[in-house]
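pasting for the record
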Amino acid sequence: MGRTREEAMALLQTYVKNDRMLKHSLASEAVMRALAARLGEDQDTWGIAGLLHDLDAEITEGDLSNHGLETEKILASQGYDPAIIDAVKMHNEAAHGMKRTTVFQHALAAGETITGLITATALVYPDKKVASVKPKSVVKRMKERAFAASVNRDTIMECERIGIPLAEFAAISIEAMQGIGEELGL
């Protein structure tokens, strides 16, 4: 059963109060919609997964052994599509000791992770705008482990498992975030 974006947004705002986390969720939604378009998948389904993937971040207080599991329960109780629930649960493999196997799972993990690298890249520019970020800059920053050190480069590289080379993945993701740059404050 599908849910609307408006319902998903209301649910997000119920559980997530941190402005930075809300912006990350919006960025992840935009990237997931763009990836769905590129791969011929349902943009609404993928977008909602991006929007809600960190629904329990404040409940679990960043505890990776639990993160995603609370969201799984919440989304199931709300009647969300099992494919969304699965992708959201699997974006954090640490919570259940299973490995990502589907295109949707890899896309969400890589897509939500690259938003952090793009945001960090934008913030080092004088104008601090995502509009200034170029794919080659993000690819270069991927090699600089000290830059945005908390961003998992291996997770971003899962883009290749869905058939999208890193440079194209960065371009798709940047363009998606540029489309909502004002909302992101970038």
